[in-house]
Structure formats: C-alpha cells, structure tokens
Design goal:
alpha+beta, 18 strands, 25% helix, Chloramphenicol Acetyltransferase, 10 helices, acyltransferase activity, transferring groups other than amino-acyl groups, 445 residues, 2 domains, single chain, six-stranded mixed beta sheet, seven-stranded mixed beta sheet
Length: 445
C-alpha cells in the first residue's frame, strides 16, 4: 500500500515507427457556410498542441488495418458536427484576436507501423519520450492552407495491438470537451449516433460589454510587449530529471484523515494530493538557505461549466476551465498542518463563482494576459479517456506525451488502480532529490 517513487524502467529509445501514409481528411458532407469562429479569452492563450497516446490490445475481430479505416471514416463523419476542427487558426488583424477560419481545409490522418510489440515497450505508465513517435504534430507538404487543428495517427504493433495518437490545438478543446469528442469518435466508429451533440457557441464565454473586472486576479499576468500566443509555461533548457511518484489509494486515504478538522469533513482526493505536492514543490527550491518568507503560488484548473449562471451546457466544446490559485508563505507550507493547506486549495476552487469567472474573462479582454504562478498542477487523473468504449474495447492505457517543463506537474491515473494517482515531476537533479525527500517525509509525518 505504500507510496513509491517508480524507478525508471528500461525504456526503448526507438519504437522503430514507419509512417505508411499521411493524408488530409475532409467532412463527409457539406457543412454550414464558411465562417469565422469566435474564440473566447480562455481559448486565446491556448495556442499550443496537446498530444495524447491511447494504447489498445490486439482484438481478433479488429486488426489494426481495419481499425485505422474505421477511425478515418469516423473522423470524416465527426468533422460535420465539429466543423471547426477542419478549419485553421488565423489572426484577425482588425481585432487582434485569434479565430478559427471554418474553411473545411481538413484534419490530418496518419497510418504508421512499429516493429515492436506492446510487451517490448514495457511499462506504459512511465512516460517514454519515444512515445512522441506515436503522434504526428504537422503534415508539412500537406499544410498549404495552414496547420491542421487535429491530427490522428494510428500505429500498429507487431503483436496486433495499436496506438491512437492525437495532436489537437488546445484552442479547440479542454480535457472535458476532448473526452466528449473521443466518445463521439468511438460511437461513429461503431456505426452509432453521436454520444453527445457538441455546443460550438464560444460566444457564451465572451467578455461582457463593457468589460468589468470586479476582483483582483493575482493568478494572471499582463502581457508586456509579448505575442498574444506567448506560452503559458515555456520549456526550459535546463537538464531535468523525470520521476513518477505513485500515491496508492491507501496513501490518499491517509492524507485525507490527516487533513480532517472534524470526523465528518469531506475532502476531495484532488485537493489533498495537490496540497501535498504544493508543499513539496515550494520547499524543494535549490537554495542554501530556504527563504521561509517567500510566497509560493500554485495554479490549477477549475471547470466553470456548472459554476456560471446560467450554467454552460455540459457539451460545451471549447475551453471552459479557468486557473484557480492558492498562495502561502513557505513557512506556512513547512510548518502548518496539511488541513490548512487543503483548505487553501479548496478555497481557490470555491472562489470560482459566476462573477469571479466573468471578471477573469473580462480581465483577459482588457489586458490580454495569461496564467502566472510558481507552477501548475495539470490533472488528467479523472478525465476518463481510458473509459471511452470503442468497438474494439477501451484503451489499456492513455497518457499525455510529456514535455520538458519543470513548472508543470502532471497527475494521471494508474493502469491497475483508478483510485491511485501517478504524480509526474520534472526538476533539476538537486531539486528532485529534495522533492523526493520531502514527498516521503510529509507523507509519513
């Protein structure tokens, strides 16, 4: 039941992937007349790709070649209700805003093969940089009309298993709406109707007129002579160690018990895990003398769909998450009880009322800024990508393709126990050593 820092398993450096074919896929029927899709102020700052890999075991009724054909056909169909996904990002020079030109230029589709078996790849939980070969992010010679907003790659393995790699612009989906997209793709691949009809009206999250900022927003920073699409967190050139810390369901239960201020208190797994990570990350700075008066700010996403008045449709297909925050002095993080830190994290979520969310969106209208903090916790833990039921079954595992960033910590589910969580951390070596010591120290305290 104990926590463990997973040792780096032997990782295949080369999955021996060969691209068999690359093409553009177009809607299989005429969509609405060409238009420009408005992008909200949340979408505006997310002009970067999100890459995921979905692994599937072999299935006697669905050889990889047949699966590739079904996914391609489903993609052609899904580009009708998701017409924006066949479009291209463009900058409106009049407004200075990004938009999607719904021009039907197509999504990308790639068929590839690997000389490896899934068993040879080994531990799918451990993020292997070689997984990047299972996702195509650009189609070069096919990009005469601009870069596709969605590219799907189906890679077959020698064992009959396969991987579906997806690369989508974050401006198109957040994790919740991408899960709905996958459910719809799976339904269409099986000859069924859409599981969810997407709501494509991004103007539901337009700023008010005139914009009204009614709260301070320390979690946001103004752009100062930077590009509109400046990265929220930029990749570092430092050498980083990569480690996974697995919190078993028992570890999480123990943390919850320590955080309770009364026996009937209900504490979410996310809040207690995030509080634990915050304390370890903030105190792991590679300095001789830890400045305990330094203020640490943690960022994490909150789904605003049910928090708005009236609520957004659950099927809203754009980005409907805003950055919540919690701030504390390092002294409080080092000496304070875990219960206090959990309260701070919970308060950050509670702060995200309709008025606060509207204020943050209006702030973006005025200042064109983006989230800003010491680091961000990005949770893939409960998104449920591995619960999507395709005709050939659910994925054996789903994971993001990892990136070289020390300011983002990823949470994702375990392959064997959905109530456990894997904490993926990238830090310079000395900081990682300190983080690991603190992770175990505060867990056992």
């Amino acid at each position: 039941m104990g926590t463990q820092c997973l040792e780096t398993p032997p990782l295949l450096q080369d999955l021996k992937v060969t691209i068999q074919s690359s093409s553009l896929v177009f809607p299989n029927q005429e969509t609405a007349e060409r238009k420009s899709m408005f992008l909200s102020n949340i979408d505006q700052v997310l002009d970067f790709n999100v890459e995921t890999v979905h692994f599937f075991a072999s299935h006697k009724d669905f050889p990889a070649q047949a699966v590739a054909e079904k996914i391609k056909n489903a993609l052609e169909k899904i580009l009708v209700p998701y017409d924006f996904l066949a479009g291209r990002l463009k900058l409106n020079t009049t407004t200075g805003r990004l938009e999607i030109d719904c021009n039907g230029a197509g999504a990308g589709f790639v068929v590839a093969s690997s000389e490896c078996t899934l068993d040879e790849i080994g531990d799918l939980v451990y993020p292997n940089p070689a997984f990047a070969k299972l996702v195509v992010t650009s189609l070069d010679s096919l990009e005469k009309n601009g870069k596709p907003l969605c590219i799907i790659q189906v890679t077959s393995f020698k064992c009959g298993g396969f991987a579906m790699g997806t690369s989508t612009s974050h401006a198109t989906f957040d994790g919740i709406s991408f899960k709905a997209f996958l459910e719809n793709l799976a339904a269409l691949a099986g000859g069924k109707p859409l599981a969810v009809t997407p709501c494509n009206d991004r103007e539901l999250l337009a700023a008010r007129s005139p914009p009204s900022v009614t709260f301070p927003h320390p979690e946001l920073v103004k752009l100062q002579g930077q590009e509109l699409n400046a990265p929220v967190f930029d990749a570092t050139q430092e050498a980083l160690d990569f480690k996974i810390f697995r919190l078993r369901s028992g570890n999480i239960s123990d943390l919850k018990e320590k955080a309770k201020t009364n026996p009937n208190a209900r504490i979410s797994g996310f809040n207690v895990v995030t509080a634990h990570i915050w304390r370890c990350k903030a105190l792991s700075h590679d300095t001789e003398d830890q400045d305990l008066d330094r203020v640490s700010t943690i960022l994490y996403a909150v789904n605003i769909r049910p928090r708005l008045i009236p609520p957004l449709p659950a099927s809203y297909a754009g980005n409907a998450v805003l950055t919540a925050y919690a701030s504390a002095k390092c002294r409080e993080l080092q000496e304070g009880p875990i219960s206090k830190l959990v309260e701070m994290v919970a308060e950050g979520s509670k702060r995200m009322t309709d008025e606060y969310a509207r204020s943050a969106i209006d702030w973006g209208e005025i200042y064109k800024g983006f989230p800003h903090g010491e680091f961000l916790v990005s949770s893939w833990w409960k998104l449920g990508f591995d619960e999507v039921d395709y005709p050939w079954g659910c994925p054996t595992y789903c994971c993001p393709v990892v990136y070289h960033r020390k300011d983002i910590i990823l949470l994702f589910s375990d392959i064997d126990d959905k109530n456990s969580v894997n904490v993926w951390v990238a830090l310079p070596r000395k900081e990682m050593e300190k983080f690991e010591r603190l992770f175990h120290k505060f867990l056992s305290a």
